[in-house]
Design goal:
By secondary structure, the protein is an alpha+beta fold. It has two helices and eight strands. It has two domains: 63 residues, Roll (2,3-Dihydroxybiphenyl 1,2-Dioxygenase, domain 1); 53 residues, 2,3-Dihydroxybiphenyl 1,2-Dioxygenase, domain 1 (Roll). The radius of gyration is 15 Å and the shape is globular.
Length: 123
């Protein structure tokens, strides 16, 4: 398992993408629509930043963030968590590009995503 990306909900996707490209040297890797949200992945070397368009931000409602770990098999992750009485809060989903993803809640309500880019063929 390795860190795949860090995600931030942003008010203006294009402004945020430009900021991270200009000041951090990140390059656009891909953009897509998922569950009604516009998403841009920016990348530099092995680091990815996921920007998620959000219309729900305010000063009293700070941006949502999550950590994502890349794994060989989503099925193995869900099996392990389920066996320990921990169930996904979202997913698993299969994305248009073939990636598979699932979301869990950590002990302090943090969101932890697992993503399978390739890896083992799930049965």
């Amino acid at each position: 398992m390795r860190l795949h990306h860090f995600a931030i909900e942003v008010k203006d996707l294009e402004t945020s993408a430009s900021f991270y490209q200009k000041y951090f040297g990140l390059q656009e890797e891909r953009r897509f629509l998922f569950n009604g949200e516009k998403i841009i992945f920016l990348k530099a070397d092995d680091f990815r930043l996921e920007l998620i368009s959000s219309t729900e931000q305010s000063s009293s409602n700070p941006p949502s963030v999550h950590l994502c770990f890349e794994v060989d098999s989503i099925n193995e992750v869900t099996k392990s968590f389920n066996e320990n009485g921990i169930f996904a809060i979202e997913g698993p989903y299969k994305l248009e590009n073939g990636w598979k993803t699932v979301f869990y809640q950590g002990p302090d309500n943090e969101v932890i995503e697992f993503i399978q880019i390739g890896g083992k063929a799930d049965k």
